[in-house]
Here is the input.
Amino acid sequence: MTTYFNEQESIKSRLGDDDNRTLKVLADRYIGANPPVPFAFRAFYRSGVLQNEDGMFDLNLGRRFPEARPGQFSYAFGLVWSDGERNLDVLFHCLGPIEFYFNDERTYRSNVIDEIKPDASVKLNLNFVKGWNRLFIKGKHTAAGFGCLFGSDEAKVRILNVLTPFAERQGQAGWVYSEPTDTDVFEGSPLPNGLASEKAYGLRWLPTCEWSESELVKLVCERLFGLQPGKQVYAWTKLNKVSSGEESCLLKGHTAGPLTVWLDGKQVLELAEEGSFQVEVPLSFGKHDLLIRSICGSHAWGYTLHAYVKGEVVPLSAPHKVHGSAEPWFYVGPLDSSIELAYEELIRTDRIYAKSSESDAAGDKTYWQLDRPDAWIRPYYENAMLSNKWTVGNVTNYARWDYPLGVTIYGLLQAGRLLERSDIIGYALDHVQSCTDMFEYSLWDREKYGFPAINQQLVMMKMLDNCGSFGSAMLEAYQEDKDPGFLPIAQRIADFILVRLERKEDGAFYRICQDEYSENTMWADDLYMSTPFLCRYAGITGSSEALDEAAKQFLLFRKYLYMPDQRIMSHVFDFKYGMATGIPWGRGNGWTLFSLTEVLEVLPEEHEARPELVHFFNELCAGYADLQAESGLWHQVLNDPDAYQEASCTAMFAYAFARGVRFGWLEQPDRFINASLKAWDGLTRLAIDAQGNVHGVCSGSRYAFTADYYKKDLLTVTNDNHGVGIMMLAGTEVVKLKRWLSHPEEPATS
Here is the structure.
């Protein structure tokens, strides 16, 4: 069998049968490797390059420069930071002749077909190095067009964050692009240095990031919003007192119209009209929130303000770290004077603000800006900088919404409950809430910029992968904290699954997909991507429709994917060929059995589908038990003893067998007690090392009609998110099984 480490390095060799401590090591290692660092906030210029709904950066230079002449050149330049070596597919749609340089090497030059054929798409595979990676595009104007569209393949999953080059813009998000030039400035010359000054190349780089002299003479609110009599703007900064003790602080300045000032939530000044002001307030060591409301006057809009302690200036600092900005003030507006906002609603970065009391659409709302031309504060998911589909290695998954992390969060919650560790539960809750708290913002972000910078899969929901797994974990977390923000998101997911998701004529879920390869297919995985969420949603809302749908889908998927002669499931049914692939991928089967236990746990005894589903559960368990290897593990392709032994499906079978015994669903419980305990023993000897690293978990799968794809192309990844959470879940169920075996008269609990 495949071995990943010497058994002397296993968790079993160190802890023996101390399952609770094994769970502790698993959970603590994961949390230690994925610290609770939320989104990064960056300065972003909306006048710059935006993404379209497919996540492609719109570098249509012809639209930006309608006066450009044929033969002129323009350049686009961006930086990508990678925390380690990464491989990523990128796409080009050429609008004219382009050359693409990756890390200063020409990687692609368009041909006439690429440039002229409508909707032609070119895919390149790039190997990003650890550190800065340089993306440089050279476009030449022709009558056919100018520029290109560029982005990562499956952009909402394989996140590509482009940062702005040049020292003057360090830390900002987005591309820079140059005004057209008659000659190719970089023909035979080195490409620009992304960390040098932008002034070194004799080009004007856009978007503009500095105010003109005529704008600088205006007061700040007028500079940002123009004159809008009666409108209001809120401004937020922090006073940073560095001397010890409490001292008197003088706030002094001038306003062009009505002004209100709050310090740490207490109103300290209110002026009804234009004029100078000064007020003394007590100020202790540290940072203090200073909030201002400015109302537009008849001829000017804005204010000046300075703070002094003993005649020395008290420095101001931004309320939140914003990369690429040294501006100390955040601004939100313009808002109708009828809008009344509490102080607590304003000193935060996780909400958007209605411009008027009638605002309901995202376009009628706004967010924080900086005192720069069209410069906005924008949060980005960057914890796995240059994220592949399945994030591994030296990255942190915190604040990401995706399906493997759904089962990870579920595993942390269950491990935390069993171990009575509120810190583990709290970490899982915080991860979920980091996504849900920003849900409304992320919808607005998509409306404002074309493609969201956070919560990409939740916002761009197009398939079950995007919503069901993490949505289920969110509703599991709801048991711990009845956060009302979870329910609108759950409703959105339920509407997608129950109303908008594609179905076959008999009602079965399937995948339309946009690529020809996966088009018109049904995946065993999707039982997990849908039915656990539907069960939890039914439990919270009382929706019988959701629970009925979960039961129905199992019976429909059985019709297409079940292999009755072996009592196991094919991974995929391909409707293009009118047949199942016949390959029983381990984890696809694991998802099936795992999810069936979720349905059986909550399905009422009197439900019409229950007897058939209990019988199906027994058939599957028997089929899987027949294929368990002597080591306790199952093979990557279940019925192929030459395939490597895989950990995530093994954990799922151990989990499901243990639950089947405890809840009394199995007709031959003794057989499955032994199989579950044997599987867990194998995992602790062969897949979990003494540091809590999880080995032997295959990477995310596509599908094939041949077992060789699963055996030879889908290799294992250490600490892959598909395996860490389910390992914790398997461990918790084995502990519960052992307890139940000591007291079988006690009812089974979740």
Observations:
- Residues 237 and 319 are 5 Å apart (CA to CA).
- The chain has 22 helices and 33 strands.
- The first strand starts at residue 40 and ends at 45.
- Confidence is low (pLDDT under 50) at residues 386-394.
